[in-house]
């Protein structure tokens, strides 16, 4: 069974348009939800319908015990990684505000042995050049 940690953009496209349904419901995949992704989904759920969908999604992952919460070690390593991205890759954190979230998602996936599934190749590839983790860009 392949563990996958789904990024926010993949889940938004699935919730809004049913995109990636075949992949998301494929057998042999064990899907996980990052608490960071849950934060992003909640932050963008402006309508009552969207809030209901996010609650239902979270409830399903919570019941399956598949919500991944960054540990203190993930946060500390994330800080070091963000510093490296600024020093070595000229990232500007004030302009790349979601980068900290992506770092935490990547480090959490690495810790549980999951593949990050995302549409965001640029930032995740930059992170992966400094810390190895499995990545699938859709």
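^ Assign residues to that structure.
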């Amino acid at each position: 069974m392949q563990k996958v940690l789904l990024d926010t953009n993949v889940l938004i496209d699935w919730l809004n348009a049913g995109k990636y349904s075949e992949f998301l419901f494929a057998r042999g995949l064990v899907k996980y939800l990052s608490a960071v992704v849950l934060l992003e989904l909640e932050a963008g759920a402006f309508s009552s319908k969207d809030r209901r969908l996010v609650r239902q999604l979270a409830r399903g992952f919570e019941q399956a015990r598949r919500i991944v919460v960054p540990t203190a070690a993930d946060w500390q390593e994330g800080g070091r990684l963000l510093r490296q991205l600024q020093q070595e890759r000229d990232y500007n954190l004030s302009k790349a505000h979601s980068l900290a979230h992506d770092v935490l998602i990547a480090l959490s996936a690495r810790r549980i042995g999951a593949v990050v599934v995302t549409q965001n190749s640029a930032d995740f590839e930059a992170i992966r050049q400094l810390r190895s983790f499995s990545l699938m860009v859709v």
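Residues 72-89 form the longest helix (18 residues).
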